[in-house]
């Protein structure tokens, strides 16, 4: 159904390791490893945590195999990931529609803006440009995690573990598979930050 995607791009590495290590124990059908490999080899992993989790699966191993690896052996088991087919990023600009919505707590709001950023910019740059354009409306705060920056507050409304609230980022209504420090919006894309519960 999801063309090889298991969970999201961050959970893929561990899911592939688990499925690879337990392939003889699950049913009713075999897991299509090739589809999952196709997903991860096409993704540009940049975060160390994500790379550490997907790399064992790319070489057909799991962390469970670490104790039995022969580190002196010279093998070439890792498939070539190739190069970026698009080549170096262009200096062209793109326009991104960015909106923030809160229908959960306090005074509800929905605000939108268009920002222009260089092609290849991360979503974090879109948030920064929106804040520059209208700091009162689009202010935000992040905290650094091992997965990169995580948005913890927008427009003065902070996520809260006790309330089980967080800021969810979507593209045209679908949750993003990457965080604000990794995701690269496309020209004309509508990025929504929605105050949500888990």
UniProtKB/TrEMBL annotation:
Binding residue positions for cyanocob(III)alamin: 8, 53, 176, 198
Gene3D superfamilies, alphabetized: 1.50.10.20, 2.170.130.30
InterPro entries for the chain: Cbl-bd_prot, Cobalamin_Transport, Transcobalamin-like_C
Cell location: Secreted
GO molecular function: cobalamin binding
KW Nucleotide-binding (keyword) present: no
Transcobalamin-like C-terminal domain boundaries: 120-192
Family according to the record: Belongs to the eukaryotic cobalamin transport proteins family.
UniProt name for this protein: IF factor
Organism: Furnarius figulus
Taxonomic lineage of the native organism: Eukaryota, Metazoa, Chordata, Craniata, Vertebrata
UniProt gene name: Gif
